[in-house]
Write a structure and sequence with these properties.
The structure is a single chain. By secondary structure, the chain is mainly alpha-helical. Helix content is 49%, strand content 4%. It is globular and about 70 Å long. The structure holds flavin-adenine dinucleotide. The site of flavin-adenine dinucleotide has 28 residues, from helix 9, helix 11, helix 14 and helix 16.
Length: 433
């Protein structure tokens, strides 16, 4: 509701509106929402329905082809305009282009708005007019741009139509049959109100020490707003605006620089739409990664049974909360791709299925960065040592104690020896390039 440009545009037309959600997973290409995302989507839609009904415009839920759903609504209700907030996943960009042209051909006004990013991915370019491939110059360019406009207020009342046929949320079948989400459920309330409360608590608390605490999985040092940002319960512009009210500090600029990483991830996905599945650096097409999701070592990684404490704690956190701390994400990804030698795509797909903040732009950037094959990636030879990382970032082992069960397996690999194997394979790749 808050800072929702499409809703704001519709309200300003001063005509009845039909808020609609169309569930069309087949239109997401290879990246239809995973299991945890479907659960999160159900929760988010439930809260959204309540909020919209309270303001006077009940949510209409449809399923199937977007075009067919719109067509039936247009015919039944004499619709004169369709407006939406833009999405940036490559398959959805293509879908929305086709829908826009089709609407215009029907003489229906079609309008899309920028809501989920501060800057459009195509609006930022190098002096040579090319996309950025390195984060720091991208950030410096963004920092020189005029500050994002103020967020839009939430409407106080909506003029809705009550006679529109709608599916129930249950008919979308988003909730899993096996209730594996019970523990995740205890960690999150995926409503707009909860997102705004979390932002307020973060700005009054953890933001002050973000510069140091953001790397500590044993502390509540980050905002945990990623699921809300992904699903749109809060806008990045609202976050930027609220935290900018705080005195300028190292922590504030660090936090903003993370929001700019998110912009950078979308910039890369926009310009390099094949990177969710292909190495950005094609030299790595010849790296001898294992590519078998049924391999017992890969399965042990997914279950948090590698015997490496920090890796297993992270995978357990993921399993129990649908979220994982950023530093631990980097460590489990480095361990999977380098110490165990599995293709980053397998890890990205596992995260896609299990994270409630699964986001194609951020997930692709994170995995390609950790594997060493992305734009502005960590150099391949910088391999995280989970044991020394644990000493540094979880010094009292409280994060590990929280997530690890007793009866731990022995380490499945020797960290030093597996590191050497990875470095040797990388050297062979570089020598042959
Ligand atoms: C292997 C790997 C996979 C990842 N997959 C995802 C994913 O699917 N979805 C996702 O939202 N993030 C992903 N990230 C990025 C990052 O881990 C999360 O955004 C962050 O942990 C979310 O927690 P937070 O909201 O408390 O972040 P905060 O530290 O509070 O940061 C605020 C916001 O900035 C953005 N942000 C922070 N760090 C990054 C980053 N490194 N890259 C891009 N944006 C960032 C996020 O939107 C985040 O919500 C991944 C990172 C790695 C290493």
């Amino acid at each position: 509701m808050d800072d929702n440009p499409a809703l704001d545009w519709a309200v300003r037309r001063d005509q009845p509106i039909i808020p609609i959600y169309i569930h069309a997973p087949d239109e997401h290409g290879d990246w239809a929402p995973g299991a945890a995302s479907r659960w999160a989507l159900h929760q988010g839609l439930e809260h959204l329905s309540i909020d919209l009904a309270r303001l006077g415009a009940p949510l209409v839920v449809k399923q199937g082809s977007t075009r067919a759903s719109l067509e039936s609504l247009i015919k039944a209700h004499d619709v004169s305009a369709v407006v939406w907030n833009r999405l940036y996943d490559p398959a959805l960009v293509e879908r929305d282009k086709v829908i826009k042209t089709w609407l215009k051909d029907q003489s229906i006004k079609a309008k899309s708005c920028k809501a989920s990013l501060l800057f459009e991915p195509w609006s930022i370019e190098t002096g040579q007019g090319t996309p950025y491939r390195v984060y720091t110059p991208f950030r410096k360019t963004v920092e020189k741009l005029p500050a994002p406009a103020d967020p839009l207020p939430a409407p106080k009342r909506l003029d809705g139509l009550s006679s529109v046929s709608s599916l129930t949320l249950e008919q979308l079948d988003l909730m899993p049959r096996v209730p594996w989400y019970r523990s995740i459920d205890q960690h999150w309330t995926l409503s707009e109100t909860a997102a705004h409360d979390m932002l307020e608590a973060f700005c009054d608390g953890a933001l002050n020490d973000y510069d140091t605490d953001r790397d500590r999985p044993d502390r509540h040092g980050t905002s945990r707003l990623s699921p809300y940002l992904h699903f749109g319960q809060i806008s990045v512009r609202r976050i930027w605006h609220e935290c900018s009210q705080h005195p300028s500090s190292k922590s504030l600029s660090r936090y903003k620089s993370e929001l700019i990483w998110r912009e950078f991830a979308h910039h890369l996905l926009w310009h390099f739409p094949k990177t969710p599945s292909d190495n950005y650096n094609d030299k790595f097409d010849r790296y001898p990664w294992k590519d078998d999701a049924n391999h017992p070592d890969f399965i042990a990684w997914t279950k948090g049974e590698t015997g490496i404490e920090l890796v297993d704690a992270g995978m357990q956190e993921l399993w129990h909360t649908g979220w994982m701390h950023n530093r631990v994400r980097m460590i489990v990804a480095s361990f999977l791709t380098k110490n165990l030698g599995f293709h980053w795509r397998l890890g990205a797909q596992w995260f896609w299925d299990t994270l409630i903040d699964a986001d194609l732009a951020n997930n692709t950037l994170g995995w390609q960065w950790a594997a060493g094959c992305g734009a502005d990636a960590a150099p391949f030879f910088r391999i995280f040592n989970p044991a020394t990382q644990a000493e540094k970032f979880d010094p009292q082992a409280s994060y590990r104690r929280r997530w690890l069960q007793s009866g731990r397996p022995d380490p499945m690999v020797d960290l030093k020896a597996s590191r050497q194997v990875a470095l040797k394979a990388y050297k062979a790749l570089s020598d042959n390039t």
